[in-house]
Structure formats: structure tokens, C-alpha cells
Amino acid sequence: MMLAEALATAPALVHVEEDLDADRQALTQLAEWSLRYSPVVGLEDAVAPSSLFIDTGGSAACFGGEEALLQKASTEFEANGWVVRVAIADTIGTAWAFAHFLPSPPVGRGEMD
Description:
The chain is mainly alpha-helical. It is 40% helix and 9% strand. It has a two-stranded antiparallel ribbon. The chain has a two-stranded parallel ribbon with strand order 3-4.
């Protein structure tokens, strides 16, 4: 939908120009902050990354298990103003798919059949 059409349909919309560099910088800072959950944190490999990956394999036990880590991370991200969808799964691809495509990512460990 063109901007003019969107504003005509919903005049209360706020239009913000896309700034890929600023978005990447903010996600990079969030990745650094996320080192509290694991020493292995990375960004999605894309021109405009929108995902942060945290390898919890060796650190979940430090938080009382995967479900406790998932809840703690969700709560802390949201407390800092981030809108997040988190998922833990056996593979990075499965976790990414759960977070992006399930109506509500599973709380706890996700596994593909």
C-alpha cells in the first residue's frame, strides 16, 4: 500500500523512514546486552537483520533450565521496551521458524516431529 493511501485510510499512522544502519546498530547493541544469557550471540545474516540468535546449549542450566531462561529473557527484553518472540529448539532453523511463523511460539523447548 502506498503511504498516501495508508494515511488516507488511517490518518493516525506514524510514518518513519527506514534506517538500515541504525536498525543494525540497535540490534548489535542488543546482541551485546544479550551476552548475559550466553557467550554465543549473533545476528541474522541479512541486509536488514531482524533476528538475534542466542546459543543456550551450555548456559540454560545456569538459569534453572531452558523454560526458566526463556521466561527470563522474554521478561527482560520486554522490560527494556523490545517486542520479542522467543523460541528454543534443537536447531537454529527450527527456533527461527517457531518464532516467526507460529501464532504463539511454544513456551519451552520446541521439537519437530
